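Case study 2.
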Amino acid sequence: MANKTKGLLALLGLGALAWWRYKKASPEEQQKVKDTINTAKDNLTKFGNDLKDKASQTAEQLKEKATDAADQLKNKAEELKNDAQQAAE
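Prediction:
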């Protein structure tokens, strides 16, 4: 628990230092920071969307495979039923 507290305090300290340096920076340097943050945000959004797309594709593929397997089992059951009926005659 103490390690988590120390880690949080360190993180807060780094955040405070970063904020202080940002406020003292020139407008050009501040704009560079904003641009970097916006680029990172855009990259994270793209990555998240790519993950969602991949998950949707995988889910759709699994659904198709399950449907195919169910159809094959149904067909096999029909064949066995027909074979049993023919054998009984």
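Helices lie at 2-24, 27-88.
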